[in-house]
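With this grant's support, we have settled on a layout for protein records. One resulting record is reproduced below.
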Amino acid sequence: MLHEKTQNFQYDVLKSSAKKLKYLESQDKIHNSFINEEKVLIKNFYSSASKESNIKLLKTSYFNSKEVEKLFAKMFTKSKNKNTSASSKMLLEHFSQNENISFSHIGVSILAKTSDDYLVVLRQGTDQLQSSGLIAPSGSGSVDWNDIENSKSDNLIDLLKHAMCRELSEECNIDYRHIRRNKVKLIGHFQWVIRAYKPEFIGICQLDCPLNMISPNLDEVYYFKGINLRVQNDSQLREFCDVLLKRFDLSLPFQVLLKQLLRIMTESKYSECKKEIQKLWFSD
């Protein structure tokens, strides 16, 4: 895994638009209060056939990703309109020339199970920029640039697990001692097309603390208590997924996470992964 601190191709996408300044100023008035943190892009995310052993990471910022996502969304919503904006055409052309690059920073989501068998489900605050007011997993967010150093590893999986644990710790006010990386399992990933093909990774974990030791960060999230959240075996996990998937107020990452869990627990081709989840969550 390699990271390149000096590159930020998103800026090239934005500055090549003739309407950049006017557009960014108008958007900044709409969302004028968020922390512009340093985030991580995967440069060679689409090289599924590549023989390269290294994943190349680029530094970006939350602001740059948000603006690229907005331009990308405009491209899709106006794709059938003959009067497609210049910025949308520019982005489409830029994407076709850089198809080996993910256009937005890495997202992560994790569903945690407590030592007394409760799955921690949250609802995002209504003032959040993403998934506002929607039901979400125990931790969700993105990979920060300083996660690369703090993960103390040059392995992408370790980086993703570290970022998941950090988001979980921040949103649920859980001491890091109760979140162990060896009790985190990645179960899949997807690309959020409308958000500029944003790569999202999903996982689960087993905590070493009971539910009453968790205190959601009320500045961002609060508990969702609409269903029975105690899960002690396979059938209860399947029921948990089925019940939640009937709702229309799930965040997209949580919806994908639940669908993937359900596939793993019901389809034979995922039998090995199912055994790992059973060992992680249901073994005595």
The first helix runs from residue 9 to 15. The radius of gyration is 20 Å. The chain has two domains: 2-97, 107-281. Residues 107-281 form a domain with the Nucleoside Triphosphate Pyrophosphohydrolase fold (CATH 3.90.79.10).
